[in-house]
Structures are given as structure tokens and as C-alpha cells.
Amino acid sequence: MTIPRAGVITPRVNRSLLLALPLTLTLAACREPPPLRLGTYNIRNLGAEPTDLDRLADVILAARPDALALQEVISEDAVVALEGRLAARGRRFAHALSRCGGKRSLHVGFLYDPRAVTLESLREFPSLDPAGGEACSGDDRSGLLAVFVHRGRRVHALTVHLAAGGEPERVERRRRQWDRLLTFARGLHEGGAARVVALGDANSTGWLDDAHGERARITDGARAAGLTVATASLACTEFWRGPRGRFEPSVLDHVLATPETQASAATLHGYCARLACRPHPLDQPTAEYAVVSDHCPVTVDIP
Asked: For residues 199 and 247, what is the distance between their CA atoms, to the nearest angstrom?
């Protein structure tokens, strides 16, 4: 019996693979890292009325956000329960909420993936007062500023929930809130924060038809503040029960950003995207509208 000599076994090498290896490594090195996906989502009265948390988790995961601004959070326990549903599906999120929710306890906040972003700081501004001196009262809800760090770069994200309604006095109240919001964002930018994003439920009932000049006021104000309206091309972000026996599309949610963010045009998700923002009969509501929210997630990508 012949015993093979001990020694090093040299594997057979495919020379074509060796020739291709430098090109493969070069392509891998040149591949762009994934952008930061930042979004906003009004989850209707979360914690105060029945919400299908499993369906909600699926909607959020389909949008693939790294950080998601939230509005209409009434119960922090509901957010914790939602995080459990998300974790069971393979993504772990953390959250931060405002203390002030106004007289209806409608809090704003953020849901974020700690593996994608680091929450460096959080500051609340009652009534969107840049000096932070106003008390939480009445219909006003705080602006909540989160500073996230993504791949070593800061993003200042301010989430808001402005006054609802199309009545003249509500529109005027919202106009004043827009003025504060835009002044706030411009102040951050001029103070050295290059990448600033303001996002949330702006309740802009006059966006599609420019009722009361609302669309012009938003776009002109954003331009004067040095911001782009990433949601300008969206045909809806929400549906409502209209007078003609149909669910009607509306654009209530917005994302505004400084040029340095290089934010993409906004992307619409959820049932609004599936319906392509087309009106549909009242007797055919989507399950998502009925048991999750009338709003849909909206995201932008930031390199």
C-alpha cells in the first residue's frame, strides 16, 4: 500500500476567474453605498382606535425607511407594540416621541433603525417656536427636531403636524404655522446645518386646487427659504370621503429639503400607490384605509 507524501495540497485555479477578480473588486469599490431613506407617515390616532398592527408593520417594511417621521401618535405603548411586530419580521426599530401633543394628545415622533442611523440629539419646540419658549397648549403640536447621523454625516430632520381643516380661519392658522416652520428651517440652514429636512402632515387641503392660494404659498415660501418641495409632483398622499360618493385623493403630507441633501423626488407607498391616486367608490374601501390609516407613507432618498 502506497501512502501519499505529506505536503501542501495546491488547489486547481481557474485562470479566467483570476483575470476577472481585479475588475470585480474595482466594481465593488465603486458601487455607491445605500442612501438614507427618510419618510413621513400619519398613522391615524395610533393607540386610540383599532389599528391592525400586523398590516401596519407590513406597510412600513414595504416602504423600507431608515427613519420615519410619525404623526398622530396617542399611545407610546402602541409604538412599542408596533416595534415588536417589526422585529418579528426581521427589522428592529427604536422610537422618539414629543412630550407635547396639544389638547388632543396627538404626538409627533420618529421611528428609526439604529443600525442605519444614530440619533445624535433630539429637541422639542412647542408651537414651532424656534426659541422653545412656548407652552404646550390648545391645538398646537410640537415640532420635533432629530439630528441623525448617517455614514458620518448629519441630517437635521424636523417633523411637524399642522392645523387641519379648509375653513378660512383654519387656513390662516396653518399659514402662520408655515411661516414659523420655514423660518425655523432657514435658521437651521443659515446656522450651519447643511442637510435640513422638514417633513410631516401639513394638512394642505388647498394643495391640489390651490384653494386660498395654499399651494403657491407653500412653494413660494419654500423657495424663499432655500428649500425644495420634494413632494411637489405627488398626486396624493391620503384619501378622504368626498361629497360625490367616492374616496377622493388629497396631498396633505410634505417633505421639504435644503439643496445639500440632494433628496430625491418623493416616492409614494401603501394603498395610495396601488390606487395610483385615482378616486374610487365609497363601497370599496381598501382594508388599509379602514384598519391602518387614511394617509400613506412618503419617502425620499438622501445620498
From this structure: 25
State the total domains in the chain: 1
Percent of the chain with pLDDT over 90: 75
With respect to residue 15, please indicate whether it lies within any of the assigned structural domains. Answer: no
**How high is the mean pLDDT of the chain?**
88
3 part of a folded domain: no
Q: Give the whole-angstrom CA distance, residue 176 versus residue 169.
A: 11
Q: What is the pLDDT of residues 104-130, one digit of tens each?
A: 889 999 999 999 999 999 999 887 766
Q: How far apart are CA 146 and CA 97, in angstroms?
A: 10
Q: Where are the alpha helices (DSSP H) in the chain?
A: 15-30, 53-63, 76-88, 168-190, 214-224, 270-274, 287-291
pTM of the predicted protein model: 0.88
CA-to-CA distance for 59 and 201, rounded, in angstroms?
Answer: 18
Residue 92 CB neighbours (<10 A): 12
The CATH number of the domain holding residue 174 is 3.60.10.10
What DSSP designation does 236 have?
-
The CA-based dihedral angle spanning residues 105, 106, 110, 111, taken in that order and rounded to the nearest 10 degrees: 90
* Residue 18 falls inside a structural domain: no
Rounded to whole angstroms, the Cα distance separating 253 from 230 reads 11
The whole-number average pLDDT for the span 64-75 is: 97
Range of the domain at 170: 34-298
